[in-house]
Amino acid sequence: LTGSPCFGVRGVWCTCVLCPIRFSCVVHLIVFLHNIITYNCALFDLVNLFGFSFSVEVAGSTRVACKDLKMGSCGKLLLALIFTFATKVFCEDDTTMGPMFIKEPENRVDFSNTTGAIVECTARGSPRPEIIWIRADGTAVGDVPGLRQVKGDGNLVFPPFRAEDYKQEVHAQVYICMAKNRVGVIHSRDVNVRAVVEQSYQLRVNDEFVLKGNTAILKCIVPSFVGDFLEIIEWVSESGESFNINQLYKDGKYLVLPSGELHIRDVTPEDGTKSYQCRTKHRLTGETRLSATKGRLVIT
After folding, report:
1. 3-class secondary structure per residue, 107-155
2. Domain spanning 204-299, CATH architecture
3. Multiple choice CATH, 97-196, 1.10.10.10, 3.40.50.150, 2.60.40.10, 3.40.50.300
4. Which residues belong to any copy of the Ig-like domain (predicted)?
């Protein structure tokens, strides 16, 4: 109470509730606490806390001063306790950090039903973020026995499955990885998952009609339903010669373009006695396959 005697720290507990503090000093104290919050507990110094004036500086902000602070030892102790409490409250969580992706999943994940797939998503932060998989509409993704598993480490697993077990809502879906802790929430890019069911197919090479001395172009005919996943890696002749992409052979007579076509320049009647096959590689399964038919040049 104003006017009540205030004892020293070493004496009996101080009985006063409020010691005379000027209103302007209270305003400066509020500003100081605001700066602590705003500048995330940056370095500050207290000058002459137990004297008759003090000043505060937070992260280079304008120094605020309260001159001639007239109070007894109880008021000084109370002020010191306030600063101590504020530092403890506002600085104890200084190590917290919002989530950040360590490994963000790719925008597109294609896989074969014979191999399955694992979509990885990991994040760091303090506290450690929780990984949650959601759909594009924001609903959480759960386990589907034998088809989809959400692991505790954040991975989204698609096991191998039979063709008859294909489910569009599982195997042709847009997924989003969400990482969250009490500091914040982040979302990954859209993850477009597509499972490809293995189907029987054949590659073909048709005969090509060409004028003598011109350039012949042989094409590897791939079924449309598997075309996105096959890469033409080479052509082979019946004599065992191999022609790879972007390489010239026999002084430029043979060339395989990036599109997979085989160009044969300056054809002669002798070229009409040879046959050619294409070889592909499945980018999901790694399987290589030779065309079922052989193509020949018909020289006219």
Report:
1. CEEEEECCCCEEECCEEEEECCCEEEEEECCCCECCCECCCEEECCCCC
2. Sandwich (2.60)
3. 2.60.40.10
4. 99-192, 198-291
